[in-house]
Amino acid sequence: MNPTAGGAASFLRGSRRRFAPVHGFGILAVVSGLAALGACSAVEDVLDPVHADAVAALGPEVFGLPKGPTHRPGQPCLTCHSGQGPGKSEFSVAGTVYKTKPATEWLEGATVSLTDAAGTIRQLTTNQTGNCLIKKSEWTPVYPMRVKVSFGGVSIDMLTHVGRAGACADCHTDPARAASAGHVYLVADPANFPVGP
Ligand code: HEC
Ligand code: HEC
């Protein structure tokens, strides 16, 4: 099965898809904008205001996914999972991988290889929504860190180092713009996507 972002969500939920796959991000942008305006008071009560705004800007859960390893694909996980809440578990590195540069499909089963400045290597595997993570209690990289993504005999290196940010989506937001690399993808051109894992 090669589900689209929206399709995989309905696959995971076993019910009708709520967002059309291609337009999902546009709708999410509107939803997060409204959430930011409406400022979630429950969150603000517990968190410091600047952090609360950053969390509120991400809006409610997306694609009907439950809070857990598959939720909020494409979002900057560490905004909520680095000790300030509302995520209780703390991650050192986390992110989402898409199949192609047009980021319409999550890539499950990709290997994300992280090599830190001490030469320690950690390999994470992406789940059904392309997410991967490593908990802070398991490993904290010595920065700078090198990153590589592999799947089906295809590998793509991130050419630059990651200097500090553990959340891929701190830089890899969609759509790509001056300050953003766009979502993490395996192949730029869908025609080059590998046939088998
Ligand atoms: C807007 C805040 C927010 C963002 C962004 C976010 N999460 Fe979460 N996450 C939560 C909350 C709240 C919970 C429920 C409390 C908990 O278990 O930590 C949760 C739970 C989890 C859990 C279950 C933790 C456990 O120990 O059982 C995992 C795994 C997880 N998130 C992964 C991710 C990943 C991967 C990303 C990025 C793709 C992400 N989260 C992005 C808020 C967030
Ligand atoms: C500090 C910002 C930053 C962070 C954090 C970051 N990246 Fe990147 N990434 C970039 C930039 C900029 C590029 C484009 C230039 C290049 O290849 O270095 C890029 C390119 C890539 C590429 C090449 C193909 C593509 O998608 O553009 C991959 C693969 C990649 N990154 C994976 C990751 C993964 C996985 C993570 C999280 C573990 C991550 N990156 C975290 C900035 C970042």
CATH topology, by name, is Immunoglobulin-like
Strand order of the largest sheet: 3-2-5-6
The run of helices and strands is HHHHEEEEEEHE
* Total discrete domains: 1
CATH H-level superfamily title: Carboxypeptidase-like, regulatory domain
The 3D shape can be described as globular
Structural class: alpha+beta
Radius of gyration, rounded?
Answer: 16 Å
* Percent range for β-strand residues: 15-25%
- Runs in which pLDDT lies below 50 for 5 or more consecutive residues are 1-41
Q: Helical content, roughly?
A: 10-25%
Q: What is the end-to-end distance?
A: 12 Å
Provide the residue-averaged pLDDT.
Answer: 82
Report the total helices.
5
Indicate the CATH architecture.
Sandwich
Note the main sheet.
4 strands, antiparallel
Number of strands: 7
- Report the bound ligands by name, code or SMILES: heme C
Care to describe what's here?
- The protein has a single domain (about 5-190), classed as Sandwich (Immunoglobulin-like).
- Helices cover about 20% and strands about 20% of the residues.
- The protein has helices spanning about 5-15, 25-40, 40-45, 50-55, 170; strands at about 90-100, 110-115, 120-125, 130-135, 145-150, 155, 185.
- A 4-stranded antiparallel β-sheet has the order 3-2-5-6, with no helix packed on it. A 3-stranded mixed β-sheet has the order 4-1-7, with no helix packed on it.
- The two termini are about 10 Å apart.
- One heme C (HEC) binds near residues 73, 75 and 94.
